[in-house]
Design brief:
Blueprint (H helix, E strand, L loop, with lengths): L3 E2 L5 E2 L2 H4 L7 E7 L2 E7 L6 H11 L5 H11 L2
Antiparallel strand pairs: 1-2, 3-4
Length: 76
């Protein structure tokens, strides 16, 4: 299928493709080996209180996120 890029760098995704991924508004975009890949990403709306409650339930602390980032970066 053919898409089109406008003068403002906006890309039109064919309707037949979009119908296969309903309710997706955000994409992770990657360029690898000359290929542009769009990966659908779902965004969940949560309040800060909901996030804190979930972290507490999981036993996570404020520095857990920083630790996770540091761990992930060490795996490259």
């Amino acid at each position: 299928m053919l898409g089109r890029m406008t003068s403002k760098n906006q890309i039109t995704i064919p309707k037949k493709i979009i119908e296969k991924i309903p309710d997706v508004k955000h994409f992770e975009i990657e360029f690898k080996d000359g290929v542009v890949m769009l990966k659908p990403v779902r965004i969940f709306d949560m309040s800060l209180d909901q996030i804190r409650s979930k972290m507490k339930k999981l036993g996570l602390k404020e520095d857990s996120v920083a630790e996770a980032i540091q761990w992930a970066r060490s795996k490259k």
